[in-house]
Design a protein that fits this description.
By secondary structure, this protein is of the alpha/beta class. The protein contains 14 helices and 27 strands. The strands form seven sheets. A seven-stranded mixed β-sheet has the order 12-25-26-27-23-24-13. A seven-stranded mixed β-sheet has the order 21-18-19-20-14-17-22, with no helix packed on it. Strands 4-5-6-7 form a four-stranded antiparallel β-sheet. Helix 3 crosses helix 12, helix 8 crosses helix 9 and helix 12 crosses helix 13. Bound molecules: adenosine-5'-triphosphate and magnesium ion (2 copies). The site of adenosine-5'-triphosphate has 14 residues, from helix 3 and strand 8. Keywords: Aminoacyl-tRNA synthetase, ATP-binding, Cytoplasm, Ligase, Nucleotide-binding, Protein biosynthesis.
Length: about 575
């Protein structure tokens, strides 16, 4: 494709490659619990990025941005991207989430084993090393065991206007600290009674540098390490170490970690001095997270929607999860295109949802087969059909599968005495500019014949139950002289004889406001009550052969996909992906 536009991350990477920042990285260093061996000693000059999800939910569109960014940079610069499960929290193993994350990354187009350039990692493999690093910090005077109460610790940490106050435990001897750390490790202390803290600077203007906690006690089983540990590293301590052990070069994260960068560097500098990690160590770079209008990008809130039954599951087609979007009809190409188009920046902003839909349409338009479907069907009877064509006669019609690609062939369907048309295509008295069905008006039934509308029958409630029309002879599309009768309306239709009944799920945005839950509002109160409408439609016979996940453009209506889960031969189910034009938020 076209060369990607530059951005601050590309500039940093290009500079590092040019200067050989990591080319001379010292690789012999530490016994990193197999991590380094896994990463492989080959070609230290390559850049290494990583995508480190916590397996506590399904990935969403924000993660998709981060995946495309990290894997994409590695790809573009012949580097390597690690998929690393950040599983340092002793939480219940959620194999479902681990599998879901692997699936999502694969589906987006990135592998970690097939092409041999990426590997799979889990942070909990490094617990031994992390503990060793903690003892090293204690021995070097850079960490101490604090036994203040959590409340004392909070108060003594100070805040922006007020420097912190040293803990009375800060001046313990190295021997005593080491003993207390081992007591913590050996299960002699209860949860919450002590923590290991880095000894940095209680007066730092950056609160994250005021002796941050690096280990806490938690008597809990871990899915990977079982009951081996009752102390677990804090994320801010674990993360830089994971990066260093995997020989990451550029550790790219979202802006909320900017204030953590000084600690990231402090910690890795100390460990490098101690000869525990390779040098030069990785560097952290921050970019603005993706905020998308009408969309929640918080796993916790998305989980709440699932748990409380507001949606049918993580893969509900209204969900901004990768599984949900996939089921809605998004393609990997469209998400990568979207990620490229929004780029990366250092400033927080909101991306309009239409940007995502435009990328999707741009991807689907040249690919999706065309088809006719009637979503709000009412029967039209051609009253002079038997007389002109013969009773029971069906007249074969056809249309290109794709208007710009004749090589894809044609789709066939039958014109007959009875046709399904859209209820909204009929008016007794036409409003200004209405050229479709009204008494006395001639229109072309697309790819078929011209008809003249006669009138309609209504039931007691006033609803149209049947439309009547008369065939205009010698007007069939594609036959000589077919265009002699000029019409302004072109009507999509499906034959009653060969049309296929289908369930169509008309999805709309899940929230009715652009920033759900902003400003302390309850996002649950802002759910769009009309985000799903089920309709019984008739679709042309070619759609009866659709396979799950196949995408179509229903002429005049937009893009639709055969539902991956529920669509089956004999029971077609289509999801509306998006309209033909941008109507979002209007
Ligand atoms: P959430 O708040 O939804 O749980 P998270 O950041 O806690 O998200 P992780 O599993 O830790 O979830 O995320 C893995 C990676 O994805 C992180 O590196 C994070 O920076 C990135 N990421 C998460 N949300 C977004 C977003 N909205 N835009 C860009 N990147 C994101
Ligand atoms: Mg996280
Ligand atoms: Mg989170």
């Amino acid at each position: 494709g076209a060369p990607k536009p530059s951005n601050f991350l590309r500039q940093v990477i290009e500079r590092d490659l040019e200067q050989g920042t990591y080319a001379g990285r010292h690789w012999s260093g530490h016994p990193a619990d197999g991590a380094q061996q896994k990463a492989g000693p080959a070609d230290p000059a390559r850049i290494r990025t990583r995508f480190p999800p916590e397996p506590n939910g399904y990935l969403h569109v924000g993660h998709a941005k981060s995946i495309c960014l990290n894997f994409g940079l590695a790809q573009d610069y012949q580097g390597i991207c690690h998929l690393r499960f950040d599983d340092t929290n002793p939480e219940k193993e959620e194999q479902e989430y681990v599998d879901g994350i692997k699936d999502a990354v694969h589906w987006l187009g990135y592998g970690w084993d097939a092409n041999g350039i990426t590997h799979l990692y889990q942070a909990s493999d490094y617990f031994d090393f992390m503990y060793r690093a903690a003892e090293y910090l204690v021995e070097a005077g850079f960490a101490y065991v604090d036994e203040q109460t959590p409340e004392e610790m909070r108060v003594n940490r100070g805040d922006f206007g007020r420097p912190g106050v040293d803990s009375p435990f800060r001046s313990r001897s190295i021997e005593e600290n080491l003993q207390r750390l081992r007591d913590m490790r050996d299960g002699k202390l209860p949860d919450g009674s002590a923590v290991l803290r880095a000894r940095i600077d209680m007066a730092s203007p950056n609160i994250n540098m005021r002796d941050p906690t690096i280990y806490r006690i938690k008597h809990a089983e871990h899915h990977n390490t079982g009951s081996k540990w009752c102390i677990y590293p804090m994320y801010t301590f674990a993360h830089p170490i994971e990066d260093a052990l995997e020989n990451i070069t550029h550790s790219i994260c979202t802006l909320e970690f900017e204030d953590q960068r000084p600690f990231y560097d402090w910690l890795l500098d100390r460990l490098a001095e101690g000869g525990l990690i390779n040098t030069p160590h990785p560097r952290q770079y921050e970019f603005a997270r993706l905020n998308l209008t009408y969309v929640l990008t918080s796993k916790r809130k998305l989980k709440q929607l699932v748990d409380q039954g507001h949606v049918s599951g993580w893969d509900d087609p209204r969900m901004p999860t990768i599984v949900g979007m996939r089921r809605r009809g998004y393609t990997p190409e469209s998400l990568r295109l979207f990620a490229d188009r929004i780029g990366v920046s250092k400033a927080d902003s909101w991306i309009d949802y239409s940007t995502l839909e435009i990328a999707l349409r741009d991807d689907l338009d040249p690919k999706a087969a065309r088809a006719m479907a009637v979503l709000d069907p009412v029967k039209m009877v051609v009253t002079n059909w038997d007389e002109l064509m013969g009773a029971g006669h069906l007249d074969p019609c056809s249309a290109p599968v794709h208007p710009h690609d004749p090589s894809r062939g044609r789709r066939d369907f039958m014109f007959g005495r009875e046709l399904w048309v859209e209820r909204t295509d009929y008016e007794d008295t036409p409003p200004k500019g209405f050229f479709r069905l009204f008494p006395g008006n001639k229109v072309r039934m697309k790819y078929g014949h011209v008809i003249e509308c006669v009138g309609a029958t209504r039931d007691a409630s006033g609803a149209v139950t049947e439309i009547q029309a008369r065939l205009v002879p010698d007007t069939k599309s594609g036959t000589p002289g077919a265009d002699a009768v000029k019409v302004k309306g072109n009507i999509t239709w499906v034959g009653v004889a060969d049309g296929v009944k289908a369930e169509v799920r008309m999805y709309d945005r899940l929230f009715s406001v652009p920033q759900p839950g902003a400003g302390d509002r309850d996002f649950l109160e802002e759910l769009n009550p009309d985000s799903l409408k089920l309709v019984t439609a008739y679709v042309e016979p070619s759609l009866g052969k659709a396979h799950g996940d196949e995408k179509f453009q229903f002429e005049r209506h937009g893009y639709f996909v055969a539902d991956r889960k529920d669509h089956a031969a004999g029971k077609p189910v289509f999801n509306r992906v998006t309209g033909l034009k941008d109507s979002f938020g209007k």
